[in-house]
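debug: dumping io for the single-chain case to check the tokenizer round-trip. Nothing else runs in this session.
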Amino acid sequence: MIINKANILSVLGALPFAPKKVCVALSGGADSVCLLHILKQVYSGTDVSLSAVHINHCLRGKEADNDEAFCVKLCNELNVPITVHKIDVKNSAQKGESIELAARRIRYEVFDTIDADFIATAHNANDSLETFLINFSRGTGLKGLTGIPIVRDRFIRPLIKCSRDEILAYITDNGLSYVTDSSNLTNEYTRNKFRHNVVEPLKEIAPEIVSVATRNMEQLGLDNDFIEASANELFTAAFNEGRGLKTELLLASHRAVAGRVLIKYAKMLTNRAPDSFHINLILDICRSKNASQQLFDGYTVMVNRGYFHIEKSFDFKLLVNTEVVSAENFKNQLKINKLLLKNSIDYDKIVGKLVIRTRLSGDTLRPLGRGLSKPLRKLQNEVGLEKSLRDFAPVAVDDNGPFWSYELGIDERMSIDENTKNILIFNVYKQQNGGN
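debug: decoded output
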């Protein structure tokens, strides 16, 4: 069984740009040793600089130290520069974080420090099949059934189309040594359980399962790309920033496409993806002319005038109190509360009648020190005001327009200066719905 180098070259050819620096994540296991040895040949005589990084998780005592020494020795023999990071994962795990997840987090924190265009990891076709099975068992969607991606950000998997049997054959044919992580022989971790108890029995029933699964995942990947592209087109056509998603376009589309649009929209507003139950619920609501329904995490989905949107369900309202103080008294208060300045104006600069209302279309503000006016909607976005609060945030206006708003501060024209005699302070507080 021989590794098809054309598969490896096809992966490298799929990179978004030609790299100058490639770093191999080297554990010392058969997969990463094979990867380093092959890339050393591929990039020999080119202007690509190849390096390696090894992370000692300090979880296996002397065995882990031996793995580290092996990787350093191998890189010296191949004349490949290597950096070693020794991190006590067990004592670095965050509260409630498993050792497995802590090790993964720490690896990626180390990878973030690597000076390279791409980091090559030794994931192979067997790993991708295991990922498929794990995701399938958790009820993932189509995207999770496409296996491990060839390229993600700056991570590349040149061996992703090679089976573990092909890798071991390459190791033998080239007389290469490698180390064995004893933790991979146990069923302590989820992936190991699938590897030993699912994949191995499957190979006995269907010896070609790895290669067959690889082809199927490639096809699923193509199908996923097509649906994703269609969903992006639909989202662009249906989305209106002020109103939500046009229900007519959603309902005219295939559920697979409309569902992804709803997921994208929901994640944008709630940072959470709805499951199939909630997607069906939303589509049912979209068939109504005017309807609303509780979603999750205190959010409500609504249909109004042909648009579907999501709002945060608040159990409070924002109320505004104002007080007028002299400039002298204000200076004393300012010593205690520096934030007062953001919510205080020159009272005598108010033109006509003071009104406190919510945002209207066309409202603008010229924040202090910015030198230009911007729509309130954009300013609210810039300060990160929760989207569902933006339509309810209080705005103070006079005959010349808005001059203060919640979380945005005051307009430049109302600023306090050396001639100010009286100062108006806005105090905002939350009142629970049903409160006095």
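debug: round-trip ok. The chain has three domains: 5-186, 241-312, 316-432.
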